[in-house]
Amino acid sequence: MRWADSPVRHYLICADPRTGSSLLGYGLWSSDRAGRPDELLEAETLRKHGWQDDPPAVLLEKAFRQGETPNGVSGLKVMWPDLERLASATPPATAEQLRGLAELLPPLRYIRITRRDVVSQAVSLAKAMQTGQWQFDKTPRTRTVIYRREEISAQIRAIHSYNAGWARYFETLGVEPLHIVYEDFVDNYDSTMRAVFAYLELPPDPVPPPLLERQADEVSRAWVERYLHPGMGERVEMAVASLRRRLAPRPRG
Fold first, then answer.
1. What is the domain partition of the chain in residue ranges?
2. How many CB atoms lie within 10 A of CB 35?
3. Burial class (CB in 10 A: 0-12, 13-18, 19+), 169
4. pLDDT, tens digit (0-9, with 9 covering 90-100), for 207-239
5. Which CATH architecture best describes the domain 3-247?
6. DSSP alpha helix (H) spans, the chain
């Protein structure tokens, strides 16, 4: 396909894990006028569709075609490692490789979604990786989550790496994306969705209701607090154990 000959309007949601990109994607998808932005470049999804051996140009054409609604709007959601892997088999991709990848893409509008609170983002990611629960549902969690400081630290480093990758990509291409911040998005869902529709030059109303709920819970908040104040959680646990020992019935001798 020659993108210049296509009447379709394309956009890319440039996401990182646990930033509300699914909330955004579902909102656009369920509007029936803003494409179907799915995460089609993820490795498991590529295998599911039998696309894993396709060259990048063919893969991108298939993905955008699948993300199109009848009104001629097509959306795609992608995480930084998946996009970078199309540019280079051995990351990090060079500026030349990023420009080469951009030449395979249609004219795009970019939507970047990030999270201000990186520690909460890392905690959410660590919990999701332990439980396999990536979206909210009312099914009780069946796997016990275990606080591991080093695991959260590793996720923070990964998040910073993703942010740096996207920043380098936009700087290389001279692109200024529409930037959405998760915390503002969840507090102002309707106005944020209207801003995205306006950016895509689509009617702002109606705004579909949010199809997902926040997954943060008391465990998440406790982990964040424990991470930000190292040692506090351990001291609480020791105090509770000591109190239990003092309150335990003493054997009669």
1. 3-247
2. 29
3. buried
4. 999 986 665 688 999 999 999 988 766 666 656
5. 3-Layer(aba) Sandwich (3.40)
6. 21-30, 43-49, 56-66, 80-87, 95-104, 118-131, 149-173, 182-187, 189-199, 218-228, 232-247
